[in-house]
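Hello Y.,

Per our agreement to keep a running log of every chain we model this quarter, I'm adding this entry. I've kept the format consistent with earlier entries: sequence first, then predicted structure.
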Amino acid sequence: MIAAERLFPASLLIVLLMACSAAGPEGTSGTNMDSEPIGDVATTDQPLHGTSVLFYNVENLFDTKDDPATNDQDFLPTSEMAWTEDRYWTKLEHLAEAIAMTDGELPEFLGLAEVENGTVVKDLAEEQALAKAKYAVVHYDSPDERGIDVALLYKRDHFTLEQSEPLHVDLGDDRTRDILHVELSRAGHNYHVFVNHWPSRREGAEKSQPKRMAAAKVLRTAVDRVKSGPTTHVIIMGDFNDTPQNNSIQKGLGATCGIRSAKLVDLMCVDQPEGSGSYMYHGEWSYLDQFIVDPLTAKEVESARAFSDERIMFNHPKNGPSPDKTYSGGHYKGGYSDHLPVVMRFR
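Predicted structure for the entry above:
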């Protein structure tokens, strides 16, 4: 166990140092023509001005060691995938490079999905491209069968960790990732950050949609407990395996595509270019990866977009520019991830 800082509760792993769906989305992302522009009017002197926040589904970031408690057999040196130490460290280097590409400065904090444990997140935080940020890591082991979790990295010199907790999503006889809730403070402002990776669509919409609605209910209950105000900010990020237009987001969570009279604003359906997205399925882009914030924070945001730089893409012969994956069709490609990172920039 790595030394921890301000445990809450005792099972938390804080490292001081530094599933995705196989089925396509029900809908596509787009702009709500009745919505207000992001960053229309500044409302508070927010410490995040001029900075960025990032979320990235890093596609199966496993170490090379067998964990007998989880189904990680595909990512071992002896498996058909031949997941070796060289491939592991190459992936870490590529992910760190992708994160560093997204803005002039490294993100103030960033959420990750599909990480096996706290060790792989620590290894990522210590990569050369990220080491100068001196990220601390917040991670809990989730009950997911494959052992994949979510995590948060934050600049420990810029924020104070107030509390953190895993939010369990009860699916009866099934298991999924916990939702990570982290409260950070800085210069009199508190940031309630929720990192998500909701159940996939692999089983089909009819069977899987209730599972994402269950996750939405857990998240909504937690958000409702947060006291709103000009110095209290709600920042929800994650791979939701649904688009901003799906019921789990709009009805389950209660997020809308406009700032007017909204409790939560889904930024990935506000002022988005047509045909944009963070994930491609059968040649169609959609925003499975999203930022959702409270209305006051939304007014402080300059932009929220997928980072589609050609350096982390490849030219698919049928679909055109696509995310450069680590594996494709079971064959090692040495790329980055099957998702693009999404970046929220403050004015």
